[in-house]
Amino acid sequence: MPTHNCSRSQHPWLQYALSSSNDSRTGIFLIKSGGHFFTSYPIGRQVYTAWLTVSLAVASLICSVAILVYIHSQSAISHYGTPAGRLEFVSQYIGLDRAIRDPESPPLRPILNYPLLISPINASDPDKAMNHPRKWKSSFGMVYLQERHFAVSGSVSMILQFRAGDFRFEECAIIASIPESASLSASGRATTLEIWRLEAAEMLRAEEITWNNRPRRSALFAHWDVQRGSKLESNRFNCSWGSFHTFEFVAAASDSSVLFLQDPTEHGKGILIKQYERSYNNN
To answer: Residues in domain Ubiquitin 3 binding protein But2 C-terminal (predicted)?
Structure first.
């Protein structure tokens, strides 16, 4: 096969492509290497491209740093100074209070509410947090049981906290159904418990509660004489949706005690609150 030897005089376009700008000649060069042609841009264009790439990278980095600094500054500033525990729960019942209901319809059945917190505190060890949930190690990890010991004695009292839920169920009472297996004072007589209201309008942290830092008692709420199999109910109190209600159960006598296991799977057993529907009309 005959070969064709290209020369610049024969094919000047193989050397460069000309363009005119302000009477200056600039071009995109075609370089032959190994029988193939490839383009070679002018040095000026290469410098411009590199400068543009670096500039965009620097600008992007500056923007990223500025965004991170702004986010950090906003997260570090508390605009309202409200601790997380005091933030209100958002109601999912928006507008439901304006719904029309037949005033002749019977009230809904009460609901039972299991305590959010069941935690002992010990006067003989006032700085120690006593809440140690029951747990056991299994082949697939640590299992924490929901059941809790309710234990009251001369030096140990119990703090229970509830959160009222469900729309219109805003009349509450503390109820107790003491298991037959409960351990009471050795004398065999009924054990008197004092129930104190505590000043705690926010959710408590069980792992931090001690005798010394427990919420302050605000009022004596009830007296209960507790026996095995007892079924008790306190006077009703207002419990608006989303509100917290915290009580301390104390042995009235230093030589009395109550001990039983409160298990949420045993419906109605232990100490709970019962929420009643509040009566209302549509007028």
So the answer is: 114-263
